[in-house]
Amino acid sequence: MPLFDAYLFVDWSAANGVLPERPRADSPWIGERLRTSNRQVETYHRTRHEAFDSLRERLLRHVRRQRRVLVGFDFALGYPAGLARSLGWSETGTPWRRIWHELAERTFELPGNRSNRFEVAAQLNELCGGDRPGPFWARPESAGRDALPPRSPGFPFVSRSGVPLARRRTTELHLPRTQETWKLAGIGAVGSQTLLGIPMIQRLRHDPELGPVCRVFPYETGFTRQPTGAAGPAIVCTEIFMGVVSRATTRAMSRDDSLVRDRAQVRSQCQWVARLDRAGELGAWFAEPVGLTPVERHAALTEEGWILGAR
Fold it and tell me: I need a surface site. Which of 140, 272, 286, 307 has the fewest CB within 10 A?
């Protein structure tokens, strides 16, 4: 039996300023597909506020129709194990919940696509301490912050409390082309999208209508072939990596040289999971990865998260 009725994939962006009217890459894109239809829709959004509002409206529509929805986001949903302890947040709650709460409280966005992400990263570095600024790094010259170094501080990074922080999460080691979550700027960087994206999902989790049926993989679902749980409407949020569908993306762009890469990526993600779901094979990607140690499994479920598509 298929797991989901609808699939939405979000290519997020940390771009500053309102983006051009003409669709372009490195911008928010949302891909959407219904399991029972071959109709594929991709939409371009000029600001993160616009993209969030569009995503929320779509999810509300699906939930009101009692559908089970898979939503994938192309930024990290966690950090290497130990960050919460390094920040002094380990005494209250599960690490991922505390980190998500703090990011939602500290990060703000203005409608014109302006944010304080570099300031937040500098604040977190100051809390971590250590013999040098870190673990977050990489910033444009215009965002000069003494606590946010322009280059990598080196890893493992040892915090003031003595906790060593790895460069990469276990799930990223299973997908070598992924980039570390500490890096905020530069080609392929996902750190800024993560700082701005997690608060966006947190808003969905606390939405009066969406929150009761929204769960995050694997934190709230566990590793399971049935991530939607009981019958009825459901939203499962998961981290994705566009490199998983890189070949399909390349093929799509070779057939249409006007296709924006980000659009091709969300289209390919929708097609990939829909095909697996029709074949009854999607559940295997939510099951526990083979070979995880007990320590790695615990970290994935409580702090690091896991990328759908990593084996």
Answer: 140
Q: Residue 239 carries which side chain, given as an amino acid letter?
A: E
CA Rg, the chain, in Å?
A: 19
Q: What is the DSSP letter of 143?
A: G
Provide the phi-psi class of 50: left if phi over 0, else alpha when psi is between -120 and 50, else beta.
alpha
Distance CA 177, CA 117 (A): 24
Question: HSE (CB half, 13 Å, CA atoms) of 211?
Answer: 7
Beta bridge partners of 43: 30
AA identity, residue 13: S
Summarised one tens digit per residue, pLDDT across range 197-238 is 999 999 999 999 999 999 999 999 999 999 998 778 999 999
Local confidence band at 187 (pLDDT 50, 70, 90 cut-offs): confident
Helix (H) or strand (E) holding 57: helix 48-64
Give the pLDDT confidence score for residue 144 in this predicted structure.
60
Containing H/E element for 247? Answer: helix 246-255
Coil, helix or strand at residue 50? helix
Count H helices, E strands: the chain? Answer: 9, 10
User: Containing H/E element for 31?
Assistant: strand 29-34
b vs e for 36-61, b when ≥16 Cβ sit within 10 Å of the residue's Cβ?
A: eeeeeebbbbbbbbbbbebbbebbee
The answer to whether 86 touches 161, Cβ cutoff 8 Å, is yes
- Residue with token string 């372009």: 24
Give the position of tokens 């071959």.
Answer: 38
All domains of the chain in start order, with CATH: 6-76+191-304 (3.30.420), 83-173 (no CATH)
Q: How far apart are CA 76 and CA 172, in angstroms?
A: 10
Q: 68-73 and 109-110 as β-strands: parallel, antiparallel, unpaired?
A: unpaired
Cis peptide upstream of residue 208 (ω within 30 degrees of 0): no
Residue 164: asked if its preceding bond is cis (omega within 30°), the reply is no
